[in-house]
């Protein structure tokens, strides 16, 4: 004992205290194990305390819900309350679930989902089709046996040498000419050029054109610029103002100056002159086309002195006149050449009542006298025999005309002094110029459209031409779209109209100060309007796309 006491004396006081406490705790546990009734009683008391606490918390939550809600608690909310007898942790989980549900209900997600589902259940409205009858697709051709010659093989079965790319292009062009021969020169009835099936309706349509009034009126475009822009903002497009006028791609558009109706003239890919009476209600929605040419109609004009005459220039080398009142089509000029697929005419411009200038390939401007039985009275050689894209005559000094070529040059010419084929003045754009037009009132300005992605306002004083303003504009229409050609708003020299490649689709109005003044847009305009035209006096705009559809704002 002494030894143990001595050993315990050597231990620290704290260590001895810990041992004493652990010994007492062990003795207490042993006593509890020996008396299970005491332990069970404590457990029961503990459970009762937890249940009482949970019940009080549930009552507090119910009281809080009654105070915060405007309406009484419904059965679903009562079911969401935590049941009695849960632990504190389980109650906390239930409270978190209820809080999240309350937050989601405040967002009204399920209500929005129900509205979306209701919209999906509604039948989808198909776009309406208006215009000429759809072309029926021909069935797949039957495979025919081909000879060795047609397979480009020798009698021994060897391949013949391939033709050059130039020969292939020439053969393809010749095949197109053969498959689309130029119509007879006429004169011939307009109905003879109608190729669709509903002949009776087309006959009635032509008869209605004979009663067409050509009287003009005061122009809505001649006011101040603010009133003109307000007029443009009121012009809208609807489904009834969209129709397919020609079967394929459009190359030109013009609006007839009559005030009796909106009459849109469209030039098609294979020589179709499309005429659309916008307000007409018949099987084709007032759209009819007449194949008076065999190649694209690139330019359409209405005779300023005789509005019943429609002049069309085509790549097939002919200039034709359609008399709407008489229902007659007649060829007034033909660019005769053996290699017609490599030479063409592209544009025309009126000099006076009896004279028209026609631009041609290989750098020619042809002076056509309408009284000379479809013959050229004079020729002007310009642009070093490069293709002339556009010709435009000065509105007040008709002895002057301007040309634009593929070489990028814009030249001003004087008919009276053209023996040496030297222009009065010129300006180089650097890239292909696709559009050129004199300002309609004074001719003091030109607007040009160039493939270098610019629109240019050019000052012209008949001795010199200078660029006044250059506007950045995306003109890269590509292979499948007709090139843009900006033109002046009628009776104005400070506003121009041009198509656009921007999304959503639109037609743009630019000012001579370089600012974008207005954009014609609408849900029914879903494609690029490459070519556009305005009515000379009425608030009507027409734009045509690459599938033959015309879109009208009015």
UniProtKB/TrEMBL annotation:
Intervals holding WD repeats: 381-416
Protein name in UniProt: WD repeat-containing protein 76
A GO cellular-component term linked to this record: nucleus
Disordered as annotated region, ranges: 1-40
Family affiliation: Belongs to the WD repeat DDB2/WDR76 family.
Comp. bias regions, Basic and acidic residues: 24-40
GO molecular function annotations of the record: DNA binding
UniProt xrefs under PANTHER family: WD REPEAT-CONTAINING PROTEIN 76
Any matching Pfam family: WD40
Keywords: Repeat, WD repeat
GO BP: regulation of DNA damage checkpoint
Purpose of the protein: Specifically binds 5-hydroxymethylcytosine (5hmC), suggesting that it acts as a specific reader of 5hmC.
Keyword set includes Repeat: yes
């Amino acid at each position: 004992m002494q030894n143990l006491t001595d050993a315990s004396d050597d231990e620290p006081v704290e260590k001895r205290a810990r041992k004493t406490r652990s010994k007492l705790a062990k003795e207490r546990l042993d006593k509890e194990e020996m008396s299970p009734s005491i332990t069970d009683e404590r457990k029961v008391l503990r459970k009762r305390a937890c249940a009482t606490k949970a019940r009080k918390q549930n009552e507090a939550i119910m009281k809080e819900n009654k105070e915060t809600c405007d309406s009484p608690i419904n059965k679903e909310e009562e079911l969401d309350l935590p049941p009695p007898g849960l632990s504190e942790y389980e109650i906390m989980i239930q409270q978190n679930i209820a809080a999240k549900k309350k937050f989601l209900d405040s967002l009204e997600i399920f209500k929005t989902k129900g509205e979306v589902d209701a919209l999906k259940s509604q039948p989808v409205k198909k776009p309406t089709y208006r215009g000429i009858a759809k072309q029926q697709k021909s069935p797949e051709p039957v495979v025919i046996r081909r000879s060795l010659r047609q397979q480009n093989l020798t009698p021994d079965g060897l391949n013949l040498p391939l033709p050059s790319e130039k020969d292939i292009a020439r053969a393809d062009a010749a095949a197109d000419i053969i498959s689309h021969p130029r119509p007879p020169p006429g004169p011939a009835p307009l109905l003879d050029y109608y190729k669709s099936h509903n002949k009776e309706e087309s006959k009635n349509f032509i008869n209605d054109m004979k009663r067409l009034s050509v009287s003009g009126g005061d122009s809505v475009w001649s006011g101040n610029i603010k009133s003109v822009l307000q007029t443009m903002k009121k012009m809208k497009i609807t489904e009834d103002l969209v129709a397919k006028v020609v079967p394929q791609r459009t190359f030109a558009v013009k609006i007839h100056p009559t005030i009796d109706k909106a009459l849109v003239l469209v030039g098609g890919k294979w020589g179709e002159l499309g005429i659309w009476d916008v307000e007409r209600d018949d099987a084709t929605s007032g759209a009819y086309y007449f194949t008076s040419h065999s190649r694209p109609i690139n330019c359409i004009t209405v005779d300023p002195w005789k509005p019943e005459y429609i002049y069309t220039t085509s790549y097939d080398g002919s200039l034709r006149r359609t008399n709407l009142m008489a229902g007659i089509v007649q060829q007034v000029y033909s660019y005769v050449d053996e290699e017609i697929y490599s030479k063409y005419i592209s544009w025309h411009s009126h000099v006076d009542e009896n004279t028209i200038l026609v631009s041609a390939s290989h750098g020619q401007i042809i002076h056509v006298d309408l009284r000379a039985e479809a013959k050229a009275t004079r020729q002007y050689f310009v642009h070093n025999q490069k293709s002339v894209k556009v010709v435009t005559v000065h509105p007040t000094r008709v002895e002057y005309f301007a040309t634009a070529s593929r070489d990028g040059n814009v030249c001003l010419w004087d008919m009276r002094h053209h023996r040496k084929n030297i222009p009065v003045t010129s300006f180089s754009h650097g890239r292909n110029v696709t559009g050129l037009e004199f300002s309609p009132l004074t001719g003091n300005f030109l607007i040009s459209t160039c493939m270098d992605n610019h629109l240019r306002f050019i000052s012209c004083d008949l001795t010199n031409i200078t660029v006044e303003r250059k506007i950045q504009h995306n003109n890269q229409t590509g292979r499948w779209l007709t090139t843009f050609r900006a033109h002046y708003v009628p009776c104005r020299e400070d506003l121009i109209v041009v198509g656009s490649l921007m999304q959503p689709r639109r037609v743009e109005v630019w000012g001579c100060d370089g600012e974008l003044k207005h954009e014609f847009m609408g849900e029914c305009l879903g494609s690029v309007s490459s070519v556009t035209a305005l009515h000379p006096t009425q608030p009507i705009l027409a734009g045509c796309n690459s599938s033959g559809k015309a879109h009208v704002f009015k």
